Structures
1.
Amino acid sequence: MLCQRCNNKEATVHLTKIVNGEKNEVFLCEECARETGQLPFAGNDPFSFQNLLSGILNPEINSYNTGIKQGDKCGTCGLSYYDFTQNGLFGCADCYETFNDRLNPLLKRIHGETVHNGKVPQRKGGHLRKKRQIKELRDEMKDAVKNENFEKAAEIRDKIKELEDNDGGE
Amino acid sequence: MSLKDIINNNVTHWISGEGPDNEIVLSSRIRLARNIEDEPYPNQASKEEKQSVSKRVIEAISSQKQLKLHYINLADMPELERDLLVEKHLISPVHAREGYEKGVFLDDNERISVMINEEDHIRIQVLTPGLQLDETWELASELDDLLERKLDFAFSEKWGYLSSCPTNVGTGLRASVMVHLPALSLTNNIGKMLTAVSKLGLTVRGIYGEGSESNGSIYQISNQVTLGHSERDIIDNLNSVSKQIIGQEKQARQYLLQEKESEVIDRIRRSFGILNFAYKISSDEAMKLISNVKLGIDMGIIDNVDKKVLSELMVLTRPAHIQKINGKELSISERDIKRSELIQTRLKM
């Protein structure tokens, strides 16, 4: 069978593409397949999220370098850091603790930030909720002092103290 | 059952073509990624561990009475039906593929879906018609709170909600709007829009998500970053960018009417003609023609067709829907014939 694109060379690449549930079969020669981006130049798709992530995580690792140390493993799920760099997925919540030291630069690169500033779960997040509340009250107290509203500042100070005294952690 | 009944049964809430700014925004979507604290993530879990997650989520959802949700075990569902859920955007393409212990909860009007054992244990999704991100977020957050009463979610003070993929950590929130931008396409302004949007921390994808090309000038715009910003900030940002894009698209439509009136009318009427008389139409061609005719209706060039019909057809003409409406599996060629029959019947209804 001839290549469907150039109609010149023998088709050696048979692609079955399923796009939005619709199956299409394409027969191409190797050259046309590469030209149209259907064939990656070196095995895996070099632009997959996992491969890009792998490059970010460990600049010394790239798809041509196979001499990578196996390194540390998560004690809960057994995922190694190397596995993580390969598929870009954590195995369990404890992986975040296990690979803690290496995550800040990674998260910074992905999100530009490294500290959560959003919703806090009701039951689990009691401690954090209180910390945020105290921070907000401190800001309010500063404003009160600045505006020489000392009575209000003292009230807020007592509120902060009460919150801190009750905060025995989770 | 008449065709009208069959179609009505297949149309989910968001496809209705209603909602604020519906001439440009097809739908608003909020997705939250959540995981149970002491269970391994689906990519590392055994069949038994996934079963345990399913069981715990099913119990948590069944024990609440506020929202009526029905559970579907995807393993019990034929492939065609799963594809139908993908075309309606109720489950992800990855979730429709075979695997252990995957399930989804849906409400009656298919506004809420909760995927179990997708990339994360739980993916809460709320999908509404038009631009209404605030309402959509409130409902998703309410559902999140209901589940959190029964389940301990993996959460860290520093990194927020922990997810399987580091791109979802923090809020676990993906907010997106699906927009129809034919005039920005026709005036070659899409490229500029894409550049501007990406500078504001948003990404643009085709109608069927990651890796899919834009079809019929439909784009999904969503937040890229999930850590460090509050949900409110993320939603406000997307809301204001969406309003800007709506404004730009309206201006482009004005420009087309003033400067290119005859070309645009010709293009729209030709598309309408093909939809009404073709014997075979592929799904890609249908998308393009429907997009043109929807533009014609929104601009007042075609006035004898209900505008919600075109929004509906964008989903009803997808391959799984065509087969479902005809009650059997069909070859590509058979589908193309049935697709044009469906469009023609629907346009006359």
2.
Amino acid sequence: MSITRNDVEHVANLARLELSEQEKEQFEGQLNAILKYAEKLNQLDTDGIEPTSHVLPLANVMRDDKVKPSLPIEKVLLNAPEDEDGHFKVPAVLE
Amino acid sequence: MSVFDLRLSEIHNRLQNKQLSVAELVEHSIKQISDSDDKIGAFLTLNEAGARKEALALDAQLAAGGNRGLLFGIPAGIKDNIVTEGLRTTCGSKFLENYDPIYDATVVSKLRDAQSITIGKLNMDEFAMGGSNENSAYRAVRNPWDLERVPGGSSGGSAAAVAAGQVYFTLGSDTGGSIRQPAAYCGVVGLKPTYGLVSRFGLVAFASSLDQIGPITKNVEDSAYVLQAIAGHDDRDTTSANVEIPDYLSALTGDVKGLRIGVPKEYLGEGIDPQVKERVLEALKVFESLGAVWEEVSLPHTEYAIATYYLLASSEASSNLARFDGVRYGVRADNPSNLLDLYRRSRSEGFGAEVKRRIMLGTYALSSGYYDAYYKKAQQVRTLIKQDFDQVFEKYDLIIGPTAPTTAFKLGEQVGDPLTMYLNDICTIPVSLAGVPAISVPCGTAEGLPVGLQIIGKPFDEQTVLRAAHAFESQTGFHNLRPALS
């Protein structure tokens, strides 16, 4: 499998990245090289091998459903690039 | 002898006996940073005023004769992907250049409880992605042993700061080798604990199933001290292991008689610099002289580890970094035409090339039609790699090999070739995929540059790892070598 310029543009769109023409060209070459290298995994027969997503046996962590004070709004908004009336501000979603 | 040459236990005693004050320790650090950091570039943010204020408070407490924590008065540096309340945390990225966290990471709270003082935040590859520290959005860190060479990455600032005697210990984070590899390149001690032993709450996530915080120190005893302070269960981290924390310091007996060591042939084969191999073989002779026994073993899936790692780590990174959208914190593009435009341009302006490359790779590997071929396949190979370790640990107490295949390379030498750069992590990545603990300790030099010995243990058996590492350094003294700069 090899990555085309269209694939790079499609993946950039999925990843919410805007790439320059130079970046598209660079990533096309580099991703192809990395994925070609990654194809060596196909040398291994992994039929019947369980995937390891995590080395620890994970369990849900439950806490008591108790009401606690939330973070103060001014702290929550402290790092917001733009805010208004105690809310994060974004461009209009609905026209 | 410089105060930086003292072990933490010696500093503790001197403070206790009033031969040294906390204020003096802090001033030593600030002066050393001010004298050397224009050359090294290890620090991104300094907490001078805060550190001085804390030092005065601790000295007052010392005079009043109160209880003292494990790291009482010891100035530390923290990698800049570990959040510190009110102290800027950038992750080495322009995206977060103005980010002031509103809470402390659990490890930072634990250091505070142990009464350590945070001197500042340490330079790193952007979002911990890189093996040379050249991917920092601010400046590359330089290796104190040779300023034309890299310190390793991504905790390059954390390792260089200790090597340059700027601070008494640091915290780094290790995903594929980012504590151990820079520790090896800079001639200091770096410990990656077992996955889950140290809380990741407040560590800005890169690859959540691999990331682990650990100490970088001048010697193994200091490493045990810091681990003692930061290990332990945290219910705010769903991946935190609920295990009993032993006394790591009592493990440092110097006795390794009868210890069974496996030496993977794959770690001393093709691609390993002959001088690095020679230092490792010499180290094994030291263990032999101390009564340990070693045999060659095989970790047959080692050659598949790098491909596995980069698929899995990039996939997790593409998911974790989705939160950087320009809305709640970080960079925000000017005059966005709509929400999608805000996301795309903010992320493109905020992230550097390596981060974009990994997001692209991860998004591709997780995308419809490729998930089974790349992501699931890599997770299955991860199982095989983990089984390799399980099998060797049925017969052996430890696995030993080099930390990195070469010594530190020159700045710019590999920057245009990501695949070659990734191959520097061949000895550290399999360990991360298996989630087991490993330490890098200095084992001599090759052409004047430090070589790291990697000692790998069974899950949650940090005691044996530290015991062997301590016995080795006590016998050899390589940890006492310092770069000319300091």
